[in-house]
Write a structure and sequence with these properties.
Four copies of one chain form a homotetramer. By secondary structure, chain A is of the alpha/beta class. Chain A is about 35% helix and about 20% strand. In chain A, helix 1 runs antiparallel to helix 10, helix 1 packs parallel to helix 11 and helix 4 crosses helix 5. Bound molecules: calcium ion (CA) (4 copies). The site of one calcium ion has 10 residues of chain B, from helix 1. Chains A, B, C, D: Its EC number is 3.2.-.-. Chains A, B, C, D: It comes from Virgibacillus alimentarius.
């Protein structure tokens, strides 16, 4: 049986890779996609989600979420993802807006989680604003969540600042709320997403794999500018590969305290301990990951 | 026509005085009462709200809200309000639990605000957790709010700490979210609630004014212990008197920045400026206030 | 016998009033004047100290201290004190630079304190940079200090920000170091310096009292612009009046925690307790203070 | 000609290795050793410095410095270095206390620096309290410092906390003062000190190298408990090897902002930039380093 998941996302180029991989996985059942402001503004991330589903001809419901962090002002990453959020890629068809639900992301997350037959896995791959509001506004939902597998944070280092990863930096208060719950969290942070960077050659290979491969590669080639050509991190994709190929990853338990103010705002202070609720991905089989990357979009 | 208001409250002895005054005012129409953890835990504040309405024979819907601040751990003030929150007062009847709505405070606030024919006035007299979550989860509600008249903060001084008032100290992140909106806020803070303290003699007078006066005075006499007998602050009552007798108060516009961390957490840094969205109550007609206090519960 | 004191100062108009009052008091023996950056830069505050002593024909040694706070960047108050620090007053004679000691303020403070026959009273009326460095670099000096009588801080309110007084705001880390010692500190903060504001009429009276009165009044009339004409705070003067006329003041013991970062930086969080090392001036005989002000510069 | 250096130190086991290496280097001329509280209290670190010099029969002047950080309370690392600071090693002779100067570390640092014929290199291998006080109390000394080569901080990671290295964590305010100067700083942080960890076998080899090797190895074997036997970091030794064998290290320029409060206190936020005043050691020739370690104490 497929594992039911909900993706909370700010597409974003690596979000597109992750969502696509999830939608075509035979192990995952994407119940809902919720959007959040992050890489670009909420109107763009929502449009990108709808555009992608229309392109992929997948009828997954989408709910629009928060455009602003809980307390901080929004800071986007359009220098990496382009003004639209998907580089200079142009989706040809008009987006199928009938996929857009009436309720906002928090209301629809609640509905989807509370009505699910089995506990749901949340896959947040943007700032954690929607998820934090969900847990505070509808705390009963926490009972029906199996696990959170998220992209965000780092045991060491950062990309938005020297000590903070972008998704956490963008809304550190929301991150603090999520990490402070007792829910099981798998943290695919920079520790593993940088390690599993793919090569420019891998992207070329994907580009030849049909119109989906071409779309993914086209976007990544835009985003490559921010990386070395020997290691292009497709951050968000790690969450989906963790779900479908957990054997590729090594995790270690920790408690994670999020810094919400000052020079280190967004830093995920990671105290490794057997009692921690966070399973930090600290290592991965890089070769197997790259092989997965170059085959995942091939047959679809 | 009566002014439609919603009271968000953590009863709490002064909350009881405020709610009672509001319910019997011919100028106010209480549409909804929402509860929040604060003076005591959420289960007690909710029971106290229902007990009070049952005692007063008023059929106002109640919705239960958040028991925990957004990010901080809960700290109650049961040393002031007693373990139950209403001192050692015992309500005799069983609470009329049919008044309790199914939706939580945030959902019911949204319904009440969005369905109101005219913009509603919010009257938060506890920590601002529910209101902050409302604005972040359902930002559309901000459009149908006329004004927020709240008890909390201080331009100078504090009671939870030397520089922080209890309601703001209890959930400074929520307070920051609320003060950072552009909604008109009337801040009845310690500046005015301490100034308008009543005397022990005033309370004795109220005690003779029927069973409602007796109930109010009984509770206040418990709570007097925390004050000088010449000036017992009935903090939350100031909001209702501001709404019914605005001529008793003098306000000054300001922007208010809430400190969320460190030694001064909960401090409301008040920058007076004509452009501010906050109308800080800085002075009051104390004699008229005391006269109002000793007459408000008399005829009811 | 006269009480030996050392004044650490950033003249500054009210510093001039305080230093002059101290030099002509028959109760005080000014052993040393040390300068610090504050109201204006260190070169100006040092020149002003020398100019004043030359004008008053007093041979008191002066040592030049720190121009920069411990950690923060310097912020002056030249909008209040004028670019030179003494309004638009012009001292006519060249300053007697022979009064300037070779050692810096910290070295000379140490010498003066360690060589004093009886414990010395420190009177800091500027940012506490020099004093903090003294205590950390030469901790043995703390043993020969009788008391610190300082101008700075506030139990409630602020002037540099709504919650911070200028001297503390200017170097909060230094203030924290000083307040965290176990030395007896008398804090003449805004609580009492605002209360004891003099009237414009009082200043006119002083202006007729010889060349010294004329000098003091001339400066204060420049500085009046920042105040109401009914209450012009001569902040630093309070320390000298506290030393010469302690009966005019009421104090209350407290521990004072200084906020060093964020929105409330420079706030002196004042926890009143009988065990506190800080004696906060909370009240004063205002009429007697004004009378003192109008007579102190008369006979000299 | 030998390069004049001053070592500021909190011995500490790795301090002993570093000081010893410096004293026997034909490239370095150790002018002064100043002590500071850190690994253990100031009385122990000073005794350890004297004990070591007595043992090594080296007549280097020692000045005792600060026992307490600028603002924080002291936190030692005696769990790593033992209660005495040198593990369970016992120096046999009484320490030669005639080496101890009368002035404190700050005063003696000033003297040594100002009287030096050529600009001096400072080598701080403990918390930066003395150095920060030197720069604030005697800012003129900054002009005669060639370079600071320090052990402390990390571009990524920590040991006192997940994001803070011990020397910086112990006195973050002092570290901020030092890093905020414009002096050239070589930062031998955890990035390189962990990389250059030696093996237990290397330590065994040193143990056979005369009484000095035996002493060094004896101590390190105590301290090994805190490390893997394949990589025992002799942190402070990196500074001396940087000075004597700079070709073994690779550096990259950065500005370093030190976090002084909150969860990430002591974190050295490292912004790599060509304009930075800090030369962060980011890589080293590990084999050459280990070879140096096993030969440095051999001939002496
Ligand atoms: Ca993303
Ligand atoms: Ca209340
Ligand atoms: Ca002054
Ligand atoms: Ca050391």
């Amino acid at each position: 049986m497929k594992r039911p998941i909900i993706i909370d996302t700010d597409p974003g180029i690596d979000d597109v890779a992750a969502i696509t991989a999830a939608l075509f996985s035979d192990k995952l059942d994407v119940k809902l996609i919720t959007t959040v402001g992050g890489n670009v503004g909420i109107d763009n991330t929502t449009k990108n989600a709808l555009d992608l589903l229309t392109f992929l001809e997948k009828d997954i419901p989408v709910a629009k979420g928060c455009g602003e962090p809980l307390i901080n002002k929004i800071k986007t990453a359009s220098q990496v993802h382009g003004d639209s959020g998907v580089g200079n890629y142009q989706f040809e068809k008009e987006p199928n807006t009938s996929l857009l639900l009436k309720g906002n992301a928090i209301v629809e997350l609640r509905k989807a989680i509370m009505s699910a037959e089995e506990p749901v896995t949340l896959v947040p791959i943007g700032p954690l604003t929607n998820i934090a509001l969900l847990f505070k506004t509808f705390p009963e939902t926490k009972e029906n969540i199996k696990e959170i597998v998220l992209m965000g944070g780092a045991a060491e280092g950062g990309n938005a600042t020297p000590v903070a990863e972008f998704n956490i930096y963008a809304d550190p208060h929301a991150a603090k709320i999520v990490f402070d719950t007792s829910i099981n969290i798998v943290m695919c942070g920079l520790d593993v997403t940088r390690l599993t960077g793919v090569a420019a050659d891998d992207v070329e290979k994907v580009k030849t794999q049909g119109k989906i491969g071409e779309m993914i590669a086209h976007m990544i080639q835009f985003y490559e500018r921010a990386y070395s050509k020997y290691s292009i991190a497709i951050h968000d994709l790690c969450t989906i590969l963790y779900l479908t190929r957990p054997e590729l990853f090594k995790t270690k338990r920790a408690n994670v305290n999020v810094v919400t103010e000052g020079e280190a705002s967004g830093c995920t202070v990671t105290h490794f301990t057997e009692e921690g609720n966070v399973h930090v991905c600290i290592d991965a089989d890089v070769e197997a990951f790259r092989k997965a990357f170059t085959s995942i979009f091939a047959g679809i």
